[in-house]
Amino acid sequence: MPTKNNQNFFIPVFRLPFRPFFLAAGIFSTLIIALWGLYWSGSFILKPQGGIIWWHGHEMLFGFSGAVLVGFLLTAAKNWTGLPGMGGWPLVTLFLFWVCARASLFFHHEIALVTACIFEAVFWGYACLIYSIMIIRTKLWTNIGFSIVLIGMGSFSILSILSTISGEHLIDYLHTAVAFFILVITVIGGRIIPFFTASATKTEKVKPNPIIELMTIILCIILLAWTIIYGLAKTNQFLGTGLLFLVLMQIIRVARWPIRLSLRNPMLWSLYLGYGALIMGLALLASYHYGFINNVSAAIHTITLGTIGLMILTMMSRVSMGHTGRAIIASNLLVLAFILIFVAMLIRVFIPLFGFQQYLMLAYAVSAGLWVIAFSIWLVKFFPILTRARTDGLPG
Predict the structure, then answer these.
(1) Tens of pLDDT along 146-167?
(2) Has keyword Zinc (predicted)?
(3) Dihedral sign (CA 56, 57, 62, 67)
(4) Prediction pTM value
């Protein structure tokens, strides 16, 4: 449980949730994407649970992205509620559950599978419990939906792990995680992007249109429900039509935001670029269901690499600087990291999509290499920030 005093005496890295989870997510994604690149270069020797392709997808969605989601929500809950943030030994315990789940899936063994399921269940359940208590105590019911997201992510992570026994629905559960993130990014992006733009540019925040916001979120929920029931890989023109409506709503929504004001601020345009990748990914997914393209992976990786990857890199940077008393300014190297992630997405998506089969494995390896470079840049800058006390002496 959050306590009033645990931030005052504990080592800095365990004073608020964003610190250990962002740091571990950066290290973990650099490691596993490096291994992924080695696999495509023919040098990979490990045999993790579920095979390398499933393991890569599961750990990037439920492991890496899940860590960032939990770190962000538990830190944001402190700001939203005004309650003391989670820190100290409860945070250490939660973090160790995440670490043990990741370590278990490195091994291909029945015991490893069982322990991975147990640690995943406890990790997601504990995170949801802490978050939900904070929200319920302060009656912030508009944020309670994220409790459902945390439970849903935990449940489908476990189902995904169990699917490695039979080999059925291996990809379907990963697609469900993508659908969860589409919903989360749509909700959180709609809140923070206009707010951050107004704050950084000293302009009035664009007021959301209630009808557009409601329709967009409802369509995202329908997409999630469809994915849970039917999956995303089997083509269906009805789903394609729904995706086109969602693309239209997203475009109308973003068109109301002051994009022009963000162009000189990398901490803003990177968020817009990531959100633009979401719209592009949804459009590619609609094209897939109409039969215009035959590669669902292209649509999925536009969202996972271009949207989740870039927005995570930006938000981890922003939260890490803001919550440690530093100015939220992107250095030239951090801007390079943003660009590298987007270029990695373009290479990973469009080389296969345009049919350059002779360059396929090279494209995967290069894309992985660019990710590793981008997150290595981020780690060099933010490792000392996340492991040291705030510059202003305040707790957190």
Answers:
(1) 999 999 999 999 999 999 988 8
(2) no
(3) positive
(4) 0.94
